[in-house]
Automatic annotation (TrEMBL), chain A:
Main location: nucleus
Organism lineage: Eukaryota, Viridiplantae, Streptophyta, Embryophyta, Tracheophyta
Description of how the protein assembles with itself and partners: Component of the pre-66S ribosomal particle.
Protein name: Ribosome biogenesis protein NSA2 homolog
Domain of life, per lineage: Eukaryota
Residue segments, region Disordered: 1-83
Amino acid composition bias (Basic and acidic residues), ranges on this chain: 54-79
Keyword rRNA-binding: no
Subcellular location(s) of the protein: Nucleus, Nucleolus
Listed InterPro entries: NSA2_fam, Ribosomal_Se8/biogenesis_NSA2
Species the sequence originates in: Brassica campestris
Free-text function comment from the UniProt entry: Involved in the biogenesis of the 60S ribosomal subunit. May play a part in the quality control of pre-60S particles.
From TrEMBL, chain B:
SUPFAM superfamilies named among the record's database cross-references: WD40 repeat-like (SSF50978)
Superkingdom, natural source: Eukaryota
The keyword Nucleus appears for this protein: yes
Keywords assigned by UniProt, alphabetized: Nucleus, Repeat, WD repeat
First and last residues of every WD repeat: 100-141, 142-183, 185-231, 232-264, 363-404, 405-446, 447-480
The protein, known as: NLE domain-containing protein
Boundaries of every NLE domain copy: 6-65
Compartment(s) where it occurs, according to its Swiss-Prot or TrEMBL record: Nucleus, Nucleolus
Pfam assignment, any one: NLE
Amino acid sequence: MAQGDYIELHQKRHGRRLDYEERKRKKEARQVHKRSKQAQNSIGIKGKMIAKKNYAEKAQMKKTLKMHEESSSRRKADEDVQEGAVPAYLLDRENTTRAKVLSNTIKQKRKEKAGKWEVPLPKVRPVAEDEMFRVIRSGKRKTKQWKRMVTKATFVGPGFTRKPPKYERFIRPSGLRFTKAHVTHPELRCTFCLEIIGIKKNPNGPMYTSLGVMTRGTIIEVNVSELGLVTPAGKVVWGKYAQVTNNPENDGCINAVLLV
Amino acid sequence: MAMNTVMCLLTDAEGTPLGSAMYIPHNAGHLQLINLVNTFLNNEEKLSYSFYVSDEELLVSVGTYMERNSVSVENVLKIVYRQQAVFRIRPVYRCSQTISDVHEGEILCVSFSPDGKQLASGSGDKTVRLWDLNTETPMFTCKGHKEHVLAVAWSPDAKCLVSGDRDGKVCCWDPSKGELLGNALSGHKKWICGIAWEPAHLSYPSRRFVTCGKDGDARIWDFTLKRTLIVLSGHTRAVTCVKWGGDGTIYTGSQDSTIRMWEITQQGQGILKHILRDHAGWVNSLSLSTEYVLRTGAFDHTRQVTCSDEEMKKIALERYIKAKGKVDSPERLVSGSDDFTIILWEPSVSLQPKQKMVTTARVTGHQQLVNHVYFSPNGQWIASASFDKSVKLWDGVTGKFITAFRGHANCVYQISWSPDSRMLLSCSKDSTLKVWDIGTKKLKHDLPGHKDEVWAVDWSPDGEKVASGGLDKDLKLWKG
């Protein structure tokens, strides 16, 4: 029989010692002191390990105690309800909070400085100069190459007169000049044929803006008086910006989307 | 030789002619016309009237008007007369008192008692405060709510005050002592949007009031029993406003864009009478043509001494009938909504809107949501405040657009009328209040002074004072 079995066999046959329960209880009570003595007197790595284990136990115990405490008592309502009191008619509306509004204005100012605006086509393929201009040879022997002809759609104002042909460097052929654009309202989804008032900005460069070249992504100003828009102050709106969405030199017409 | 008589027909606002067409001398002006109307109506005291020809006020003599507008002498000139209030309220232009640091939270609602003696304000610091108007100092602080107080309402007999908070709890107060009567009544599951009392001519002293909340229910409570009597459920979304009409119908407007009319039967049950469905967006605000009279009950601009209950009830009934116009003319209801429109209804006559004050011509309608609509105390005009920074004035009977008051720099939140219906007060997000004159259709006074958005404004029923409060936690009292 195995060693422990003899002990068990004896316990079965004769029972335990009469003071067994008493002794057990007292021994367990002494464990606390023994454990603490051990923890206080151990040195070296052993001491550290014991300390670490005890600390972990203590932290866990604290957490469980706190958890129990929470459920048993009823607390008073939180005092912190005062934030953000709004009248009933504003409650369901998402009003931007103060901080947000201020930072909105700051963001707006930064954007204005940087010159970046929210447009339907934020990035367009850059157009190279040799794609935009064609070299025109001039002179008796056709050796001079300082003239350029624009190969993209352009807009010249109503009062445009050419410079004297001898001196004009950039030729804008009349076949590529446009006065009207087909502008789509993004929300109403209908298209109007509106007159162009001017070119605001060409993303490829300020030179193209001043020349009046319209490529994809150019911001143009169109005459919207026929749409009958009114500002909240009661004034009639007659000019709005739109962004060109197609390649006019390929299609023969200018399609744009209105920037509302 | 020029004709020196003009053929005119005097009619009242609803179109009934006064006598037949008659010849009036060329140089008949305002005073002569007033005399004429007074004699025709056999008025004992001379009442003041204002005259309108095709919706424009007639300020010059009849003859000059004809010349200016080149109206043919052969046509009968229709002159509409409107009674103006006999008394005149002084316009408020100065801030008599700024009470800061009393309310610790933003002021969400202010309301004068119907007799004009007390002022109650509800705030984000969970208290309702009662103010002494003689000394302009705080009188009582009523603590009992555990959340922001969103709405306060006085009973028409000025003896009871009820407030609703963000938790859905309703507290009843004794305004003479500032004490909470009973406990906070619970019932609504979400915040309370509005409170309305039963009119004084239906029950005096006032006992029942109805509250509406975000949970979509309207509940009718009894003030003395302190419990819910009836629950009117049916709306699918939050009920934003509730009004108790003079004929006993309760109107509730809701975010589900319908207005429901409820009735209380003899057995004490609440049944749905009709649903008015014409809006396309949240219904933000309702107003009845007799609203001012229902709110003030038997009190008017003179601070009357109280008499017995029966007499007060009779007086309230008389005032109500006078405000309605004729005995059988229906109460009109106007509703302002998030879909930028205002609709005028005559609910007892038909379920279809009488007039839609809509963006028919782009310039006349509102460009942003309408936050507050309010009938003038004499029921002749409707004013609407909108987030498009304008206040618009409409005819109270036909719903036609009259004029727009522009001047605010930001959303207009609430409006309040002076008791003589001659002036209109509006408060706005741009921290100013503006007093508009209805006669000249212009800005009368600008009342700056608040440091932040103004959320609540009220003109006392005796016309002496105006109270305003908002985000900056100051309560300002303004005087004429």
